[in-house]
Amino acid sequence: MANSGGGAVCNGNLHNHRKQSDGSQSGNYTENGTVKEAQQNGKPHIYKPFVEFFEEAPLHVMVFTYLGYGIGTLFGYLRDFMRNWGIEKCNAAVEREEQKDFVPLYQNFENFYTRNLYMRIRDNWNRPVCSAPGSLFDMLERVSDDYNWTFRYTGRIIKDVINMGSYNFLGMAARYDESMRTVKEVLEAYGVGVASTRHEMGTLDKHAELEDLVAKFLNVEAAMVFGMGFATNSMNIPALVGKGCLILSDELNHASLVLGARLSGATIRIFKHNNMQSLEKLLRDAVIYGQPRTRRAWKKILILVEGIYRTLWITYGFTHIVLLMLCP
């Protein structure tokens, strides 16, 4: 959209371009209400903000979704009432009579969703695979006679099912070529995994080699490599930072990172997802102004980002967390 001053408005930012005496262009751009010069090597350099678009669900879809959950919850309470009075058989695990005086292992409502909602659609998950998990794989057919509480196998194999939920990112699980020889040699030398944390099972030479490679790639002095898991993020972040420290966290970080940041006691500030301008502004303000009220420098500044962001989590794993530590 053009304006009367000869500039252009894009995403709410005003860009003005005017000719200089040497023929080069100088540009002004508005960022956070401040007009800044944008020129690099005599050529205009326009900073375009990264805008990520998420399609909003239509109102009727949201209404029917919540309505479906509401109806399912009401029927769940009805079925629990029928089970308590013996009208319907209860297939869920229950505590024994002689243990009624003990503290219950779980509250009854904690299993409500599994018992009444998930069990109705349980067959969509945990399907037994009987081939390599490539783009297509084979599954064992199974049926249930008690509404998915138990399954029995028919002996039939369902061929060439499309794989839409695999961690086989590199395709190595379904590839049999010369590269698998290297995999075989590594398995023979190191086994299928260390099976636990490094302080319990020891540090391998590959751990040190990987840390050196990561540090070199990030152009930093050193790096730490952890086996991925929910506790890795939630427990190790408090060991890195604490009170008087600042955490700059991506707005779409996983719950394990959010929990670890909260447990640390450090001050948390959120920047827009994958937006370097937003991160840079927060980082500049943190370095210039320091801590609130006292204006003292932060003890440490920790930037939390992920290598792979997901909207649906099936297991807590295979996510690459990048921790950047800034110390005064």
TrEMBL record:
The organism's taxonomic lineage, starting at the top: Eukaryota, Metazoa, Chordata, Craniata, Vertebrata
Keywords of this entry: Acyltransferase, Membrane, Transferase, Transmembrane, Transmembrane helix
Ranges that cross the membrane: 57-78, 301-326
Sections of the chain in a coiled coil: none
Cofactor(s) recorded in Swiss-Prot or TrEMBL: pyridoxal 5'-phosphate
Chain segments carrying region Disordered: 1-38
Name of the protein described by the UniProt record: Serine palmitoyltransferase long chain base subunit 3
Biased composition (Polar residues): 22-38
UniProt superkingdom: Eukaryota
GO molecular function, one term: acyltransferase activity
Keyword GTP-binding applies: no
Residues covered by the Aminotransferase class I/classII large domain: 159-287
Family per similarity comment: Belongs to the class-II pyridoxal-phosphate-dependent aminotransferase family.
